[in-house]
Amino acid sequence: MKKEDKNIIIESIAASLKEYEHFYLTDIATLNAQRTSELRRECFKEDIKLFMVKNTLLRKALETLGEGFEELFPVLVGNTAIMFSNNANAPAKLIDKYKKKKATVPALKAAYVQESFFIGEETLKDLVSIKSKTELIGEVITLLQSPAKNVISALQSGGSTLHGVLKTLSEKEN
Prior knowledge:
Blueprint: H1 3-19, E1 22-27, H2 33-45, E2 49-53, H3 55-65, E3 80-85, H4 90-100, E4 107-113, E5 116-119, H5 124-129, H6 133-173
Antiparallel strand pairs: 1-3, 1-4, 2-3, 4-5
């Protein structure tokens, strides 16, 4: 491969690293063509960008960013596929789905999620439990609505209770 071609690929990888907030490094080497196509379809459904990359080109792309990605360099061995996503836990859930099927691939090598590094397969459960921005906003809205709902409920039940007491008292006088 010519040096110019390598530079174009490095720039492309670096652009994707800047475009997406989170990325996962996985090993999908043992998948056959059919299973790879299935994985790519599932990634597309979850808005995950998946592609194979040479480790040296990925390393150079990470070095061009200059943001301290050195922790990922030791896992850049063997076959590496990158899963890019703007949803922090979508790739982790997809990998976990395959693990539940007793599949060994895709295997998580490392991940860069929410400006933190997760190295090794044992961090998969932590990554799955990370909540997305949408989930967190939903929880905050639910928590904010809860006190208001309690006050309204108390006022409504209090009004009907007061009405019932007054009705009972008025019936006793007759």
